[in-house]
Amino acid sequence: MRRRVSFAAIACVLLLGGSVCKAGAAPRFDLDENTWGATHVVLATEGQVIDGLLTAIETWAGSFASGDKLRLPKLSESALAASRRVHKGLRVSGARMVLFLDLKHDPSSKTWAGESTLVSDSVCWIEGGKAYGMIGRGSRAGALIGSLGLSEQALRARVRHLVEMRSTLARLRATADVEQRLAGVATYVNANDRFAAREVFDVLRSCGRAAIPLLVSHLDGPLGPRACAALGAIGDTAAVGPLVQRVERELVFWRDAKKRLPTGSWQRSGQRLSLIHI
């Protein structure tokens, strides 16, 4: 137990040395996040009446069939035309909507019951072949809908790419042979997707000692913080040397930074990070 605690402490030191991102406003609709967390992604239509009852047109992920009915009462809250205004008189109609949902299905019924965690954030509209989604609040406190900068074709391609990657990583995680699991997941280490990266390093941790050489090779790159955390979680003596060397390199940076900071401590986000003993 003591050894695992020590490795975790080393990983924490290295993570503290990572860059601090500036806070900024981001669109409320997040395509990658919604896709990664959805059990079903479906292109559907509300028809002529916006009452929360939709009909599936096409399934991008999950087990919907064309013509299946989907009941999502919260969508009826945006029935007023004003709440669906985009700009220059354009309003999204609901004729073509892409829903990112976590649903349970009653096999005896053609109606799907349930809702995503945040319905307004988990739906986008297709108008004129272009995708629109919630991007924040308007000046009158209403939901603000804006362009996502994607065509329907590009949106579909991105969703299917992420779904395929998620399925592949799930299969690799369930692979009993460690060497096969490691060889498979290694091809995704540099995947340019934040949710895939999280899953990749979870799978690497499950490979234990066999994954250490691969993780060590990424210690000094952009994936360093994830590699450090994975090595700390594995908790093997083979990881001690590389982690200690990385800590020593980080300390060189922080000792130099200490000279440029006020004496005592650095105040950040209401928490005090002591620099006295560095």
What key attributes describe this structure?
single chain; 278 residues; alpha+beta; 9-stranded mixed β-sheet; two-stranded antiparallel ribbon; 37% helix; disordered N terminus
Give a quick precis of the structure.
The chain has 278 residues and is α+β, with helices and mostly antiparallel strands. The chain has helices at 2-16, 31-37, 152-173, 178-186, 194-206, 212-216, 224-234, 240-260, and strands at residues 40-45, 53-61, 69-71, 97-101, 104-105, 111-113, 123-127, 130-137, 143-151, 265-268, 271-274. A hairpin with a 2-residue loop joins strand 10 and strand 11.
Write the layout of secondary structure elements.
Elements: H1 2-16, H2 31-37, E1 40-45, E2 53-61, E3 69-71, E4 97-101, E5 104-105, E6 111-113, E7 123-127, E8 130-137, E9 143-151, H3 152-173, H4 178-186, H5 194-206, H6 212-216, H7 224-234, H8 240-260, E10 265-268, E11 271-274
Parallel strand pairs: 3-6
Antiparallel strand pairs: 1-2, 1-4, 2-3, 4-7, 5-6, 7-8, 8-9, 10-11
Helix pairs in contact: 1-7, 1-8, 2-3, 3-5, 4-5, 5-7
